[in-house]
Design brief:
The chain has 95 residues and is α+β, with helices and mostly antiparallel strands. It has 1 helix and 5 strands.
Amino acid sequence: MFDRAFFEQHFMTQAKSFAQDHKVSSPVVEFGLDDGSVLYVRSLLQTRENWLCLSAYDEDGTRQIYCLYYSIKRITFHPRAPKTAKSRDIGFQLP
């Protein structure tokens, strides 16, 4: 299960490490949610005790989403957009 500590202490390190290992400037970060939906995350905006605010891609560009930690079931890093992604111009913004 993911929590605030994971996102504040480990997530960015893992994203940067993946980007370096795969020689990409912006890895694609996919969140699989408990309802079966998938979010392609652009950036993390805010962490709180029980929830996370993020910017995610959709058909119309990006939107701000509030997500409860327990609803995130899987996080996957990709070097490029998977075929199932609607947009090919997706990627996570690294500092």
